[in-house]
Amino acid sequence: MSYVYVANSGFAEGPPGTISVLDTSTHAVISTIRMNTSPQTIAITPNGQYAYIGDVNILSDQQSIAVIDVKSNAQVATIKLDYQPRYLVISPDSQFVYVFTEEEINVIDSKKNRSIANIAINLDIAESFALTPDGKFIYAPGGISDENTVSVIDTKSNRIIATIKTEDAPIRLAVTPNGRFVYVASIDEGITVIDTKAQSVIATLTLGGGIENVVFTPDSQLVYVTDVNTGIASIIDVKTHTLIARVPVGIGTAKIAITPNGQFGYILDGASASVIVMDVKTHAVIALLQVDNSPSDLVITPDSQFVYVMSDLNQRGIVSVIEVKTQSIIATVQVGSNPSAITITPCLNWKWIQ
Predict the structure, then answer these.
(1) How confident is the model at residue 352 (pLDDT cuts 50, 70, 90)?
(2) Would you say 90 and 50 are in contact if contact means Cβ atoms under 8 Å apart?
(3) Which residues form the signal peptide (predicted)?
(4) Which residue from 76, 214, 273, 276 has the least number of CB within 10 angstroms?
(5) Beta carbons within 10 angstroms of residue 200's beta carbon
(6) Could you give the CA distance from residue 278 to residue 266 in angstroms, rounded to a whole number?
């Protein structure tokens, strides 16, 4: 059993935001957690015990991380921050939470729920950062003095150990599931490939100027790159670092997720309020599903059976549930106002959680 958590940011001058919790066995909201201010981002520990939520009060310029016990859905801790949390990444062993802000990466010890380090780095234009599967290194677009670099951080010392020159203005990146390569997307249409063993650039590719997402198949064989400007999904062979297919999927394409079994890719198209389904083996579009206005993010259940698509319809949050077997929408669930983030727990069996 898994649970989907949706962060609803609420209204700037209205009541605080909420967290909606959906049960994947019934596709129903089973809990609504009231937050102190406006939740913007959320991540769940790999062991399924806690949800960490970036909570921001835009009017008073206060920001914090709220910690939710997944079993009870009760808030158990609040960690104050100096800067607004933008993205969260949690170590594979669930011991550390890395909070991405414009000025630094804040490191939180999940056992004590307190900040233990601040890594100074210029992340002004960056829109993602990534941790290697073994948890040893963080790759972040940007550097202390040069934005046209990727910084490599040793998580043992929480220090920058290398800076790698990339194409102009790196903005997004992703690490292969096997940890061998980092693919870095730049504003200037380029993809830079970094070898994680040598910590050096081994290839560059030119794709398009609106790269929105970089996602690998679970076996690390392929990478899908979506371009919001051209409406093209580019598919790259990771072994050779060469482009093998370009699939038109529609202007406005943004987030993409691939099922854990590696069979299907789901691409959101905000312009047409649709979800494009691709067969990973053939690279063919096999279905087009209409959802409510402005789909912005999605998650897939660990068993690859269902896809949950988050949308915002006139500031009213909607989650559409897609059944993978039939490639059809089987439920539409109302959540809170102005949904900002969505995530999913691993498969949980409470008696085994320590």
Answers:
(1) very low
(2) no
(3) none
(4) 76
(5) 12
(6) 6
